[in-house]
């Protein structure tokens, strides 16, 4: 069976990277992509293909036509946080298996949408297998040892390229586990570093990675400050 995929978010860095990786792996990539209404109508060249960009208003009609032609299509989403829930609801309605690489949106609603529809989906704030394994371990620990770190204080710093406007989805997932473990910490306490000078001097990000990186620091302190 030939693998066919759609990559939504072809105007962004991750979307382009997934398209190029898919083409290099010999997958058939359908040259259409969803994006914002402002970007609708554009034609984007990626990996030797010309992609037609569609906005939210015509995504259902476009996706239905693709599913009719390619019933086994798989979808990869690297769009924007505001589109997460609407896109996922459409994918589930159409029965299209998908990978949600976009962070943000209402994650509880996202999981419920998938569970209620019985649609296949991979939902993770981070696609690196080592980070996925770490998050899985944190989830297991928080479920089996709730409150184990009650009374501890937490400091969180995350540094990403300046173009990333939202809080790291990986940080949100890790913090959620610490909260289940009893740590009193709010998302607005996260120190987000987007200034390149601070990233180099304070975080230690190599200059060649300033346009694309993810550095995280989680510092737990016990009640007796050890």
From TrEMBL:
Any single biological process term in GO: lysine biosynthetic process via diaminopimelate
Recorded family membership: Belongs to the DapB family.
Primary residence: plastid
Subcellular location: Plastid, Chloroplast
SUPFAM superfamilies: NAD(P)-binding Rossmann-fold domains
Domain Dihydrodipicolinate reductase N-terminal as annotated: residue spans: 6-126
EC numbers on record: 1.17.1.8
GO molecular function: 4-hydroxy-tetrahydrodipicolinate reductase; NADPH binding
Catalytic activity, as annotated: (S)-2,3,4,5-tetrahydrodipicolinate + NADP(+) + H2O = (2S,4S)-4-hydroxy-2,3,4,5-tetrahydrodipicolinate + NADPH + H(+); (S)-2,3,4,5-tetrahydrodipicolinate + NAD(+) + H2O = (2S,4S)-4-hydroxy-2,3,4,5-tetrahydrodipicolinate + NADH + H(+)
Entry keyword set: Amino-acid biosynthesis, Chloroplast, Diaminopimelate biosynthesis, Lysine biosynthesis, NAD, NADP, Oxidoreductase, Plastid, Transit peptide
Annotated pathway: Amino-acid biosynthesis; L-lysine biosynthesis via DAP pathway; (S)-tetrahydrodipicolinate from L-aspartate: step 4/4
Protein name from the UniProt record: 4-hydroxy-tetrahydrodipicolinate reductase
Record-level GO cellular component terms: chloroplast stroma
CDD domains for this protein: DHDPR_N
Organism domain of life: Eukaryota
Biological function: Catalyzes the conversion of 4-hydroxy-tetrahydrodipicolinate (HTPA) to tetrahydrodipicolinate.
Enzyme class at the top of the EC tree: oxidoreductase
């Amino acid at each position: 069976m030939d693998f066919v995929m759609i990559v939504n978010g072809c105007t962004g860095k991750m979307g382009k990277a997934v398209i190029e990786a898919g083409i290099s792996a010999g997958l058939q990539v359908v040259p259409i992509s969803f994006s914002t209404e402002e970007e609708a109508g554009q034609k984007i060249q990626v990996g030797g293909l010309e992609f037609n960009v569609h906005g939210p208003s015509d995504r259902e009609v476009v996706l239905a036509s693709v599913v009719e032609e390619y019933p086994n299509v798989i979808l990869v989403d690297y769009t924007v946080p505001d589109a997460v829930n609407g896109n996922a609801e459409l994918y589930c309605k159409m029965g299209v298996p998908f990978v949600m690489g976009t962070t943000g949106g209402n994650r509880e609603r996202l999981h419920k949408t998938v569970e209620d529809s019985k649609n296949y989906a991979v939902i993770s704030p981070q696609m690196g297998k080592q980070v996925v394994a770490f998050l899985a371990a944190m989830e297991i620990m928080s479920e089996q040892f709730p409150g184990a770190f009650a009374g501890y204080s937490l400091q969180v710093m995350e540094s990403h390229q300046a173009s990333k406007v939202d809080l790291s989805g990986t940080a949100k997932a890790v913090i959620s586990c610490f909260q289940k473990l009893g740590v009193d910490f709010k998302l607005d306490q996260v120190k987000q570093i987007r200034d390149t000078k601070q990233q180099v001097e304070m975080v230690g990000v190599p200059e060649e990675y300033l346009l694309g990186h993810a550095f995280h620091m989680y510092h737990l302190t016990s009640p007796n400050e050890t």
